[in-house]
Amino acid sequence: MGNVIEAFGLVKHYGDVVALDGLDLAVPEGSVFGLLGPNGAGKTTAVSILATLLIPDSGSARVAGADVLEEPARVRERIGLSGQYAALDEHLTGFENLDMIGRLYRLGRSRSRVRARELLEVFDLSEAGNRPVKTYSGGMRRRLDLAGALVASPPVLFLDEPTTGLDPRSRLDLWGVIRELVARGSTLLLTTQYLEEADHLADRIMVIDQGRDIAQGTPDELKTLVGGERIEVTVVSSSDLPRAQEVMQRFAVGELASEVRNRKITAPISGGAAVLTRALRALDAEGVDLHDVGLRRPTLNDVFLTLTGHAAESNGTRGTSEDQPSLAGRAGS
Amino acid sequence: MMAVVHMFADAAVIAKRNMIKIKRVPEVLVFVLLSPIMFVLLFAYVFGGSINIPGGSYREFLIAGIFAQTVVFGSTFTGVGIADDIQKGIIDRFRSLPMSQAAVLIGRTASDVVYNVLTLLIMGLTGLVVGWRINSSLWEGLVGFGLLLAFAYAFSWTMALVGLLVPSVEVINNASFMVIFPVTFIANTFVPAENLPSVLRTFAEWNPISALTQAVRELFGNIPPGTPEPTAWPLQNPVVYTLIWAALIIAVFAPLASLRYQKAVKQG
Ligand SMILES: Nc1ncnc2c1ncn2[C@@H]1O[C@H](COP(=O)(O)OP(=O)(O)OP(=O)(O)O)[C@@H](O)[C@H]1O
Ligand SMILES: [Mg+2]
Question: Which of A156, A182, B32, B187 is deepest in the core (most CB within 10 A)?
Answer without folding.
Answer: B187
